[in-house]
Specification:
By secondary structure, the chain is mainly alpha-helical. Helices cover about 65% and strands about 5% of the residues. It has one domain: Arc Repressor Mutant, subunit A (Orthogonal Bundle). The chain is built from seven helices and two strands. Strand 1 and strand 2 form a beta hairpin. Helix 2 crosses helix 3. InterPro entries: HTH_MarR-typ, MarR/SlyA-like, Tscrpt_reg_MarR-type_CS, WH-like_DNA-bd_sf, WH_DNA-bd_sf.
Length: about 180
């Protein structure tokens, strides 16, 4: 019985499945661009760290690295907890702790207990940290000026930002809801 069915099934021509014409389906060229996007983002992140490192060296700062400098930027005028900083910057726990230790030892931040909850450490920039933050902000302004020279480039930057935010949200949802059917 199974031999007959198998033979019969093999002799029948395969039925053509209807094409799925989703209006939002992407073609092969667009898929290739998506595949390259993650690699480009990683390469740009490394390049951005190199730009920050070069800016630090031009200012004579060699006691911290670019990752620590970006943490200073994230702290800004706030007094976040260590947990808040990790969530904002997507740092891993051990890396964040190590970077914060370097920043405290170098005198860029103060780390103290929260007045509400003594178990929670709050972070605050020192005068040295605020000076670094201001210098890094100036560096960012120079970079932005080089990138955006007219209204068309400003519109391109806004579109790129929206796309990257959307991608961040989608990837975050994929991690957060893994296995729960994102369809």
């Amino acid at each position: 019985m199974s031999t007959q069915r198998r033979a019969g099934a093999e002799s029948k021509p395969a039925e053509a499945k209807p094409a799925q014409n989703k209006p939002d389906a992407i073609d092969v060229a667009e898929l290739a661009e998506y595949h390259g996007l993650a690699r480009l983002i990683e390469r740009m992140h490394r390049r951005f760290l190199d730009v920050v490192r070069a800016g630090l060296l031009r200012q004579g700062i060699d006691d911290i690295g670019p990752v620590q400098a970006l943490m200073v930027m994230l702290i800004g005028d706030d007094e976040p907890s260590v947990r808040d900083l990790m969530e904002r910057g997507y740092y891993l726990g051990s890396n964040a702790s190590y970077s914060l230790k370097i920043l405290v030892e170098a005198g860029y931040i103060d780390r103290g207990a929260s007045q509400r909850d003594r178990r929670t450490a709050r972070l605050r920039l020192t005068d040295k940290g605020r000076t670094l933050r201001d210098d890094l902000f100036t560096l960012e302004q120079v970079q932005a000026t080089a990138l955006v020279r007219n209204e068309a480039e400003a519109a391109d930057l806004k579109a790129a930002y929206r796309t990257l935010r959307r991608l961040d949200r989608i990837w975050g949802d994929m991690v957060r809801y893994a296995g729960q059917g994102l369809d």
